Amino acid sequence: QVQLVESGGGLVQPGGSLRLSCTASGIIFSYVGLAWYRQAPGKERGPVATITRSGSTDYAASVKGRFTISRDNAENTVYLEMNSLKPEDTAVYYCRTEPPGVYWGQGTQVTVSS
Length: 114
Hints:
Blueprint: E1 3-7, E2 10-12, E3 18-25, E4 34-39, E5 46-51, E6 57-59, E7 67-72, E8 77-82, E9 91-97, E10 108-112
Parallel strand pairs: 2-10
Antiparallel strand pairs: 1-3, 3-8, 4-5, 4-9, 5-6, 7-8, 9-10
């Protein structure tokens, strides 16, 4: 059974930083691509950052230069380092395995507010 468990969300002031973690079980972690998605209230869920098996990364234009995705295959964990946070980054953040096998975590809330 595949499980993805996110952690690290919370309340942060504008300009602050957070690091999200997502730990996986039930898969051969080093074989899969991974992604972070987010969903703000009233909006569709959309991709934030992706990382391939080999470590290549890609980012949504709105977070490029502020967010960094990374992975630790020894720990079965993918991270999302978020800096210079803005109120518009407020959302529930989800990690996901990339196709062909797509699995989602339960999400972690990030709120950017003064």
